[in-house]
Structures are given as structure tokens and as C-alpha cells.
Design brief:
It is built from eleven helices and ten strands. By secondary structure, the chain is α/β, with parallel strands linked by helices. The chain has a six-stranded mixed beta sheet, with helices on both faces. α5 packs across α7.
């Protein structure tokens, strides 16, 4: 039996990961562990490697060297399709298929998994309610009939459709207006607490990182400079870059 004082198991691990593009290292010895059930925010400026790292988790990008593990297994040992169905993926604007209805978008993976129609319909209803949409009103709409915030909610619902243990989010609220973005951040933080999923969330916005992250990995030039809770990065920055990055906003 596991010692209750032991740290949570790592759901995702990067072990000395490098990624080269044209001889340039986008990731340069990335080492990081994401604990089961936490929201890990990959934070940094454009070009620091955070989206590349995220895409390695579901094998959209392969490492040049080093290891990426999901649930203790090297991602290269996973069938890519099976791995991607176990890792919900949300991008800006939700990445919805414009010719599908909301319902068809959400039920895509359950349909591929062979769920029967009744189970799929019930799951769509459950998820639309979970993300704050009206199943009767919205399930038959197409993405262009929704607002940006509504499309993003559908994107989250689709990522959760087959109940994956891992959720990957690549700046999902970045294209929204500030008021909608702030509201969805608050709602997502509450949703993450209730779902207890392992979430990896990419952003360049430190305020968003502080609102959503259990822990934050601050990245620069393909490396992690510091990993810690929002309070740890604020109160005990590892170096001057971390101090300046955090102090670029007034954080309470």
C-alpha cells in the first residue's frame, strides 16, 4: 500500500527532452513531472517551447531525444490514436468542425469508440450542462451560430466527451475578449476542481496562470526555469528573470 505521505504519482513526465528544428533547439533538456490530478500551467513568452512540449504529450510532435511518458509509458509505445483519445485537446476557438452540429462535434470520439446512440446523446446533454450551455437550445446549432465563448465551451465539452484522464489546453481563451475570457477562466477553475483531471494548460498570460494553475512551470529558451505554486514563484523566485516576469503584473 502506498505511503499516504508520498507525493502524487506523475501522470506525465518529460526527461531531458530536446526538439530540434533546422538545427535550433526549441526544447533543450526539458525535465518536468506533472502530477496526477493537478493543473500544470506551462507559462512563458512566445517561442519558449511551451506549445511544442504540450504537443509531445499526445504525439503531435516527436522529441529529437529524451523521453516523454504518459501514465508511466514512453509515448512511443502508445498507439497514437489510442493516446489521443485518452488526452482531450482544446485549442483557440475550440477547433470545431464547422460543418458538424454542436452535438456531432461533441460526440465525435464516443462515436469512434463505438458508443451506442442513446449513450452518446446522454453524454452530450450532460456535458453541455456541465459547461453552462442549454442542450435543448444549442445541440443542433453549428459553430458559426455560436459566440466565441460558446464555441470555446463546446471545445471543452468535446475534449471531455470520452472521459479522458488527461486534458491538454493550448491557450484556449487567448482569442476571446477580456470580459468573456475572465468569466471562462473562473468557470474553468471551478470545473477543474470538480473534475479532478490531470490538466496541462499553455499560456503566455501570467494572470491566467495564477488563476488556473495548481503549479506553474515558467519556461525560457526551451527550458524550465522554475516549477512551483503561484505563491512560490511570487515569494521565492529562482532567478532575476523569474522575479521580473512575475513582477510584470501586480499579483495579490
Amino acid at each position: 500500500m502506498a505511503d499516504s505521505s508520498s507525493p502524487p504519482l506523475a501522470a506525465i513526465e518529460f526527461d531531458q527532452v530536446r526538439k530540434l528544428y533546422g538545427g535550433r533547439a526549441v526544447l533543450d533538456g526539458l525535465t518536468l513531472q506533472v502530477r496526477a490530478g493537478e493543473t500544470m500551467v506551462l507559462l512563458g513568452t512566445s517561442g519558449c517551447g511551451k506549445t511544442t512540449a504540450l504537443k509531445m504529450i499526445n504525439r503531435l510532435v516527436e522529441p529529437s531525444s529524451g523521453l516523454v511518458r504518459v501514465e508511466g509509458r514512453d509515448v512511443r509505445e502508445w498507439d497514437p490514436i489510442r493516446l489521443r483519445r485518452r488526452t482531450g485537446y482544446v485549442i483557440q476557438e475550440g477547433g470545431l468542425f464547422p460543418h458538424f452540429t454542436v452535438e456531432r462535434n461533441i460526440e465525435l470520439v464516443p462515436r469512434l469508440e463505438g458508443w451506442d446512440p442513446g449513450r452518446r446523446a446522454a453524454r452530450v446533454t450532460e456535458l453541455l450542462e456541465l459547461v453552462g450551455l442549454d442542450p435543448a437550445r444549442d445541440r443542433g446549432k453549428r459553430p458559426q451560430e455560436l459566440s466565441g465563448g460558446e464555441r470555446q465551451r463546446v471545445g471543452v465539452a468535446r475534449a471531455l466527451a470520452a472521459d479522458p484522464p488527461v486534458l491538454l489546453m493550448d491557450e484556449p481563451f487567448g482569442a476571446l475578449d477580456p470580459i468573456t475570457r475572465s468569466r471562462l477562466q473562473r468557470e474553468f477553475a471551478d470545473l477543474a476542481r470538480r473534475l479532478s483531471r490531470t490538466i496541462v494548460f499553455v499560456t503566455h498570460d501570467i494572470v491566467e496562470a495564477y488563476r488556473l494553475g495548481t503549479r506553474i512551470a515558467l519556461m525560457r529558451d526551451g527550458r524550465v526555469l522554475q516549477v512551483g505554486s503561484p505563491a512560490e514563484l511570487r515569494d521565492a523566485p529562482a532567478d532575476e528573470f523569474v522575479r521580473e516576469f512575475v513582477s510584470s503584473h501586480v499579483l495579490s
